[in-house]
Amino acid sequence: MEYNLEKQHEKGKLHAIERIKALCDENSFMEIYSGVRHHCTSFGMEKKDIPYDGVITGFGKINGRKVAVYAQDFTVQGGSLGLKHGQKIAELIDKAVQNRCPVIGINDSGGARIQEGVDALCGYGDLFYQNVRASGSIPQISIIAGPCAGGAVYSPGITDFIFAVDKISQMFITGPKVVKSVMFLDISSEDLGGASIHAKKSGVAHFRCPDEHDCFQKVRKLLDYIPHYYGDKITADSKFKYNAKKAEKAIASILPENTKQGYNIRDIIDCTVDEETFFEVMEEFAANAVTGFGKIEGKTVGIVANNPNGLGGVLDCDSSDKIARFVRYCDSFNVPLLTFVDVPGFIPGPQEEQKGIIRHGAKVIYAYSEASVPKVTVITRKAYGGAYIAMCSKHLGADFVYAWPTAEIAVMGAEGALGILYAKEMADPAKAAFVTEKSREYKDTIMTPTTAAQRGYISEVIQPAETRSRVSESFAVLENKTLMDHPAKKHGNIPL
Q1: Is 419 a catalytic residue?
Q2: Which pLDDT tens digit goes with each residue over 354-377?
Q3: What is the pTM of this model?
């Protein structure tokens, strides 16, 4: 098979076959359906030969394990999707489900093939249907390596992880020309739907990479962390490293003395997981929450954390979506969940209320409650109000909840509580001593983790240096956790 490599190289891009070879283990790719051709006979298409109908499909190996891969070839009819093109991808996904392996799609297409009319739309429909059927059965990974417009964005949008590449990735429902004709707005493809836009602002892209080779390496790394099909057992990496003395010393000094001062929750995560194993997902989006995979004694866990360095760790619409989506992914593939809590509450104000913080926040509650995987929670500092409940509290089915001595668990902080309970006294300077005493009483009797532990809401109050050992031992206990009976139903109705 001859490929037009130069045409892609002129655009600073790799060709579809080069991408597949860079992604897969050497000499492991086996192409299927290379002989497929379109059957459109209108608008001059009857005279065109479109090799493999513009998409290369097949099976290969990554890190020695089987994967299904497809790559759209922009040098062939602009990588446009026709009936056979869509059906080739759809069948590949179906075979990946049957043979229990991840599917990776490399998207580089001008969109639906206009000449094929409704047949092209049928190709997209068949593809979307298989994406949905495969969801939760096998991991689906999308690489955006060129334009992705109109209906073409919805297949990646259904998949589990989207990788975007700087300067070559674009995703949008309608391109700049349509935006200009309808909205009279001049905007570049990069500003409308480039990698930076979707990694930082929309949250559509889970990973942003500086170039294609970095992207392929990150995909290979991700596949080293996650199960390759539903029911796949996560095997431990026996070569893990963890310096307990160094980590215990470091974790004890992370929290600032001022409880209103922020800190980077990633420092606590790094002290808890095996050395250099935290692999963050959606790093640039919703900085007030952190999600990603790490390894503890060589085994993968999914990690969710509030980040006080971003908006004080408060939950807003974007961070709620980020957390809920990640939790549901982990639950789909039986990846245990570790949650670090330092949350002052759900964000107040008209802007987030109008965006639907009630609906978005409810997704977090739903996702954690629905998740039946082992769930361990560590409260490092603030855990207030509904956000305390939402962040995998015992009340939502957490198996073990640990709290540091610095934890503050209450409906709200002392200042806010006294403002409601003793508003008149706080307005009277003569009552300053009384207010100070009540503030101390509130902190000592209500906010303390000891109170929550006495009620049975906290499994144990632990020192920061004990975090790694407690978490590790807890997941070992939960290793054979079995599902409990659920009420008879088809499925629940998550507040999307």
Answers
A1: no
A2: 999 999 999 999 999 999 999 999
A3: 0.95
